[in-house]
Amino acid sequence: MLFTATPISGAFLIDLEPKTDSRGSFSRAFCKREFAAQGIDLEIAQCNLARTSYAGVIRGLHYQERPAEEKKLVRCLSGAVLDALIDMRPESPTYRAVFSVRLDPENRKALFIPAGVAHGYQTLADNTEFFYMTDQFYSPSVERGVRYDDPRLDVEWPLPARDVTSRDREWPLLS
After folding, report:
1. Cis amide bond preceding 67, omega within 30
2. Considering 95, 132, 138, 148, which one is annotated as catalytic?
3. Residue 118: inside a domain, yes or no?
4. Which domain does 97 fall in, by range?
5. Segment 53-107, tens digit of pLDDT
6. 142 within a domain of the structure (yes/no)
7. Is 62 an active-site residue?
């Protein structure tokens, strides 16, 4: 795996290093040792698969606070997404920085998201499947969010937003 730092402190874009032969290819999608070599301690507690029927749907932007701050490793298995991160860690040198990247099966990229960073995505194709692993269990009592359309963040969603949940529409704007 090839790790490329993003503009968000501690977040990495991860490219596969496929081994190919006449049958196709084989790639390691996660390796605890390779992550540790990047200073990332990731113990998987939960794996989630989201299937979204239509292009334009926005899910997020979510994160969890202590004691269940979660790190995530995400990948788009089918379709395509614009994945967006917002650094919500006040002590971070990149506090409130925004980063977005296209994830799809063709580019085969994954994204590592450190604890305290809000994460969300917009589907760019119908019938998109999105896979993510977390190091914490989902804890609704400490879940927080950032409005997807907060003008202070200016996330450039490529499609008109559709089917945004009431919860995601009602997160407070950043002050």
Report:
1. yes
2. 132
3. yes
4. 2-17+28-169
5. 999 999 999 999 999 999 999 999 999 999 999 999 999 999 999 999 999 999 9
6. yes
7. yes
